[in-house]
Amino acid sequence: MMAAFGVHFGTTSACLAVYKDGKTDVVANDLGDRTTPCVVAYTEHDQAVGVAAKQGSIRNTQNTIGYVKCVLGRSWEDPVTQEYIKKSPVKIENKDGNLLYVVDFRGEIISATPTDVATAIYKQMKETASSHGDGDIHDSVLAVPSQFSAEQRKAFGECASRAGFSVLRTINESVAALLAYDLGQIDNTLQCIVLICRLGGDSTDISVVRLQGGLYKILGSTSCQEVAGSKFTNILADFLAKEFYKKYKLDVKESRRSLNKLRMATEVCKHTLSTLENAQVSIDSLHEGVDFHSSVSRARFESLCGCLVQRCTALIDEVCAKSCVNSSDIDKVIVCGGGAKPPIVQKAISDYLKNAEILNTIPPDEVIAIGAAKQAAILTGAKESEILNGENEIECLSKTICIKGLDINKDCILYPIFQEMTPFPARRQEVMNLCPNQTCMEMDICECTDIDNPDTAKCLAKIVMRDLPEKGCVSTTFHLRREGSLHITCREETSQKVEQVTVDICSY
Fold it and tell me: How far is the C-alpha of 93 from the C-alpha of 102, rounded, in Å?
């Protein structure tokens, strides 16, 4: 069988795994690193990607783009995009409702889209893949967060394709984690409930999955940006900044460049403390020409980050409640993501879920890429019919599908049709009797995250029927199709008038 690749494009770093000759392993880049920073820099000489871009960010901050995963596939008006713009050191403009980076490249001011940036990172991964591939064929599976919209999934797939990957499928990161540990693959009689905690660079995603008969069903998931690998770095950087101020009465936060130097040194320190009890921090000319040298113990780091770890366990309670399971029902736990490297994270989760088996034999930042590569191997090694129909995952709605209406007080209210986590396919039928003298009908179909809060509703479609018979009866069929679309048919029973529409929806 030819090589098959799994690509995990994270917020802060990307990882590439390959399945070849019966083995799955992570492919190191040209520097020997098993992960590549998701950073792109535009300089006076060339476009740098990965480590080179990240290392040069101190001197080239305004032309160095990171965290592109946060905005790829999102519109300008999206709240996540707006929050990203506030924090970005790179100049950003709005063009036709889309985000546009404005950078200085080789002495000229140019524009770059998030798609351009993501494609450059995928091209770097593709070059790495070429060293372990079979010619120009780079069959691959991409892993993305379960809460990603259809637009975001499509955007990542298009970037990978533009870079030269042949994308076979896009799967959820939680499912990739299960595949990495072969859960349900070797023994398809295994029945268990698995909690997947992915602590990434910019957010933490926790999912509860039921494994039964070789199928995966996501019972619930939650995402939180208050807990992330970057937050651990920030807390340690704040501690070191205060120590520097105590020694020299100089505030590092007065200079963006000094703050960047401190942050990069702090990241190295944090990673060192994941394997050693003590780490040294040495920064030449940190601020106003003053050098900084300090030592940090793992115990000190863990005491500083205790509040973040407690938030992790609170998220576990939150997702268990959402999934209608008790924490004691969890049989296995997979902790993954680069932010999960500190031993305190895995220990806290292990102590909290005492009855569960912790699966941690794979480095946390490599788990998802390895699982995606195993899925790619399954697809490339199967017959065409199996590739089309051989799903391991039960697709479910990520948001509730509802009808927007008015209550007796004329206040907006949402009527649920398909609840969140409804498996595909599904069908529902609703009957609406028209009021006397009513000859038209208007229906707003929405998706929402909170049925009690109409402000969370996003309109998917509007159906309008006119010139209907008085006291008519409209029968509406909602068909949630397997491929991820919602087909709605409205039929007035007396006149047999029909209106119908098909819309794409979000799935887990």
Answer: 7
Q: Please report the pLDDT score of residue 389 as a whole number.
A: 36
Total Cβ atoms within 10 A of residue 153: 20
- Indicate if the alpha-carbon torsion angle 166, 171, 176, 179 is positive or negative: negative
In terms of residue numbers, what domain contains 244?
A: 229-304
CA atoms of 166 and 136, how far apart (whole Å): 10
- 458 & 380 share domain: no
Question: 207 and 223 in contact (C-beta within 8 Å)?
Answer: no
The last residue of one of the domains, among 304, 336, 359, is 304
The 3-class secondary structure across 413-461, one letter per residue, is EEEEEECCCCECCEEEEEEEECCCCCCCEEEEEEEECCCCCHHHCEEEE
Chain Cα centroid distance, residue 148: 6
Locate 243 and state its tokens.
């120590």
Q: Which residue has the tokens 């905690």?
A: 197
Number of domains in the chain: 4
Other C-beta atoms within 10 Å of 191: how many? 12
- What are the distances in angstroms from CA 281 to CA 193, 254, 259? 42, 20, 14
pLDDT reading at 72 higher than 80:
yes
Spatial distance between the Cα atoms of 420 and 400, rounded to a whole number of angstroms = 4
Residue 186: the pLDDT is: 76
CATH of residue 320's domain is: 3.30.420.40
Query: Is the pLDDT score of 507 beyond 70?
Result: no
Sole residue written with tokens 């040069």: 56
Q: What is the pLDDT of residues 360-385, one digit of tens each?
A: 899 999 999 999 999 998 888 743 33
Mean pLDDT for 147-176 is 91
Choose one of 304, 326, 348: the last residue of a domain: 304
- Look at residues 140, 213, 138, 145 and name the one whose alpha carbon lies nearest to residue 175: 145
